[in-house]
Write a structure and sequence with these properties.
With 221 residues, the protein is an alpha/beta fold. Helix content is 45%, strand content 12%.
């Protein structure tokens, strides 16, 4: 019974750590391995903090074997919970539900690679609304998506709501040679005021979206 007194402290420590390590953020494109490693890291750090409190208070009833067993059980249950949530979420997204809309700024090679990456991973739950042209022509197979003007028009597109659906994320995939890059900073300010994520893609990337610059209020992840 005396050990049960430690559980409120465990709840506080674990809650803070899970938020600190962004365990409750959207993990649409995060691999299961990375998410599991983050969970194990939370458990290890939490056990160290808990052991420190147990030594200072002191809580002599908590033995080393208890910490080992508790840590292993906590890690196993948290990883299992992540797997279940991931499987259910991906099933729902593959059915076309719980999606986030994406506007891709750019029509060159990099933009097409990002669009193809999103299209090949439908379980991520992203819906491409269209493109904003940076001077390149969309290749065959992508012309079915609408092009909402050019990069200089992006500020007007965002402020005047020329796109019917809400824009959840904006991905900048404009080539470096484009003269429109000077206007990108002002455009990102407009996207912030409209409540959209903004992402800027580097020249090379793997099978994950580009890093975001802010997290405003938007639809559920």
């Amino acid at each position: 019974m005396r050990r049960t007194k430690i559980y409120p402290l465990v709840l506080v420590i674990w809650s803070i750590l899970l938020f600190t390590y962004h365990s409750y953020h959207s993990h649409r494109t995060v691999s299961l391995q990375q998410e599991a490693l983050t969970t194990i890291r939370v458990v290890v750090v939490g056990n160290v903090i808990l052991a420190t409190f147990a030594y200072l208070l002191p809580l002599r009833q908590l033995s080393r074997s208890w910490f080992v067993l508790f840590g292993a059980l906590a890690a196993s249950l948290l990883v299992f919970e992540k797997i279940i949530v991931r499987v259910l979420a991906r099933y729902v997204r593959a059915k076309g539900l719980n999606y986030r809309t994406v506007l891709i700024v750019g029509t060159g090679r990099r933009a097409i690679e990002i669009a193809r990456l999103v299209a090949d991973h439908n379980y991520w739950g992203y819906k491409i609304l269209g493109f904003v042209s940076d001077g390149h022509r969309l290749p065959n197979g992508w012309a079915r998506y609408r092009t909402f003007g050019t990069v200089p028009d992006l500020k007007k597109i965002l402020e005047h709501g020329q796109i019917a659906e809400p824009i959840d994320e904006i991905v900048f995939a404009v080539t470096r040679k484009s003269s429109h890059l000077r206007r990108r900073r002002r455009t990102r300010r407009s996207s912030r005021s409209s409540g959209s994520w903004t992402s800027q893609c580097p020249s090379s990337y793997s099978s994950s979206p580009c890093p975001r610059s802010r997290s405003p209020r938007s639809r559920s992840s």
